[in-house]
Amino acid sequence: QKEVEQNSGPLSVPEGAIASLNCTYSDRGSQSFFWYRQYSGKSPELIMSIYSNGDKEDGRFTAQLNKASQYVSLLIRDSQPSDSATYLCAVNIYGSSNTGKLIFGQGTTLQVKP
Amino acid sequence: SAVISQKPSRDICQRGTSLTIQCQVDSQVTMMFWYRQQPGQSLTLIATANQGSEATYESGFVIDKFPISRPNLTFSTLTVSNMSPEDSSIYLCSINTGASNQPQHFGDGTRLSIL
User: Fold this and answer.
1) In this complex, do B109 and A105 lie within 8 Å of one another by their Cβ atoms?
2) Residue A76: which H helix or E strand, with range?
3) Most C-beta atoms within 10 A of its C-beta, which of A19, B27, B85, B90?
4) Burial A3-26 (b: 16+ CB within 10 A, else e)
5) Smallest Cα distance from A5 to chain B, Å
6) pLDDT tens digits, one per residue of B16-58
7) For residues B68 and B6, is the Cβ–Cβ distance under 8 A?
8) First to last CA, chain B
9) CA distance A36 to chain B (A)
10) Which residues of B touch A98 (CB under 8 A)?
11) How far apart are CA B50 and CA B77, in angstroms?
12) Is the alpha carbon torsion for B45, B33, A29, A105 positive or negative?
């Protein structure tokens, strides 16, 4: 069973702090990794994609990937109350049909307190 | 980016009935996916829908319970059959607009409650 693991939280940080969200995955063949943000009552929204080892920055968001450790993380700098949401880690599983299906972690709830 | 429209946005149904959820995309896409998100849970893939072929179902999901149609490259339906309260969930369709290693994008979902 291919798995994606996240700490469900809640992770509580003060406004302006760095929030660090972590995710591990079991399938060493995974090649694509995504972070989605889901506000309560809404559908998931893609915020970051990462494909290579190292860091990828986009505004206040930085995704980090370490394939050797099977670990992917998301850093949110200068956290704002509007960042309060559930963050879902998703891993692209390559099957024999190469359909690109995603396996999601259980999500980490982030609370940013003013 | 592609616009994904799901209908209905929500519904309340009686147990034993069936409901068909529609997913319409404003451009042609190869892959469409159907997910279930139970209350307080993450997303679980139900099936992958390819145009012109049978849907591929994940472990724990069967065609008799969740029949899927994919008549063309812009449209798909998911039917939830013989519903019970355990089927109360959000059902989401998603698309992959590029290569299979690209991210998926989601419709707004259908919030289904079974009485």
Assistant:
1) no
2) strand A71-76
3) A19
4) ebebeeeebebeeeeebebbbbbe
5) 11
6) 999 999 999 999 998 899 999 999 899 999 999 988 788 999 9
7) no
8) 37
9) 10
10) 100
11) 12
12) negative
Segment A6-25 shows an average pLDDT of 95
B34: closest CA of chain A, how far (Å): 10
* Contact residues for A114 (Cβ-Cβ < 8 A; gap 6+): A15, A81
- Tens of pLDDT, residue by residue over A42-92, are 999 999 999 999 999 999 999 999 999 999 999 999 999 999 999 999 998
**Separation between Cα atoms, residue B10 and residue B19, nearest integer Å:** 11
Quick: pLDDT tens for A79-92. 999 999 999 999 98
- Residue of chain A nearest B59, judged by CA positions: A1
Cα B21 to chain centroid, rounded: 7
Is the pLDDT score of B99 beyond 80? no
Strands (E), B1-115: 4-7, 10-13, 19-25, 31-37, 43-50, 56-57, 68-72, 75-80, 89-96, 104-106, 110-114
B102 touches chain A (CB under 8 A): yes
- The closest of B115, B114, B110 to B94, measured between CA atoms, is B110
Rg (CA), chain A: 14
